[in-house]
Amino acid sequence: MLDTLASIGRSCWYWLGLLLIGLSFEAVALFYQYVLDEMPCVLCIQMRLWVLVLIVVALLMLIQKGLNLAVLPGHLLTVGIAAGMLERAWKLLGTERGFAEGECGFSLGLPAWFTPDVWFPKLFQVQTSCGYTPELLFGVTMAEALIVFSAVFLVVSVLMVIAAIARPR
Fold first, then answer.
1. Domains held by the chain: number
2. Exposed e or buried b for every residue in 76-113, given b needs 16+ CB within 10 A?
3. Phi, psi angles (nearest 5°) of residue 132
4. Helix (H) or strand (E) run with residue 51 in it
5. What whole-number distance in Å separates Cα of residue 4 and Cα of residue 62?
6. What is the per-residue pLDDT across 18-65, written as a single tens digit (0 to 9) for each?
7. How many CA atoms does the CB half-sphere of 127 hold within 13 Å?
8. Which one, of 54, 55, 3, lies nearest residue 164 by Cα?
9. How far apart are alpha carbons 28 and 14 in whole angstroms?
C-alpha cells in the first residue's frame, strides 16, 4: 500500500488533482459571493487564503515534477495547509453552531506587509461578520462540508508524507 501511495504522491496527476480541487473551491466561493450574494466573513476569507496556498503549492509541484527531492517538502506543506484549513473550518463550524467563542471582526489578522484584501479586494475583502455559512446541497452547510474535506485532506496528506518517507525514490 505504501508503494502505491508513494507512486501516487510522485505523480503529476495527484498534484493536478489538488490544483483542480483548489481552483474549484475558489470558484464555488466566488459563485456564492457574486451570484448568490453570500458575502464572506473573516473566517471564509482566511479559508480562501489557505486554498490559495494549496493552489500555489500544487502549481510548484507540477512545475518541478522531475525533481524528486521536492516531493517530501511538498507533502509536508500540504499537511500544514490541511491542518490550517481544518482549524479554520472548525472555528467556522463552531461559530455557526455556537460552540466556539472569539472575535470575528473585519480584520484578517495578517501582518501589515501582507494585505491581500487591499491587493485583491474582489477575492479577499471581508464583507460580513461571522455567524452562518450558506447551505450547499442536501442541507449541508459550507462549514460542514469544509470540515469534512479538511479532515480527509489532512489524513491523505499525512499518509502521503508517511509513504514518501517509507518509500523514497
1. 1
2. bbbbebbbbbbebbbbbbbbbeeeeeeebeeebeeeee
3. -155, 160
4. helix 42-63
5. 19
6. 999 999 999 999 999 999 988 888 888 899 999 999 999 999 999 887
7. 13
8. 3
9. 21
Q: Which of helix, strand or coil describes residue 148?
A: helix
Q: Which amino acid is at 61?
A: M
- pLDDT number for residue 131: 76
- Of 6, 30, 36, 15, nearest to 122 by C-alpha is 30
Find, among 48, 33, 50, 24, the residue nearest to 134 by Cα. Answer: 33
Residue type, 112: A
Distance CA 33, CA 43 (A): 14
Cell representation of residue 16: 493536478
Which amino acid appears at position 60 of this protein?
L
Q: Which helix (H) or strand (E) holds 79?
A: helix 71-97
Q: How far is CA 104 from CA 7, 94, 96, 146, in A?
A: 42, 12, 11, 18
Q: Which residue type is seen at 131?
A: G
| 3 state DSSP class of 141 | strand
What's the CATH number where 112 sits?
Answer: 1.20.1550.10
d(CA 159, CA 94): 27
Share of the chain above pLDDT 70, in %: 94
Domain holding 85, by residue range, is 2-166
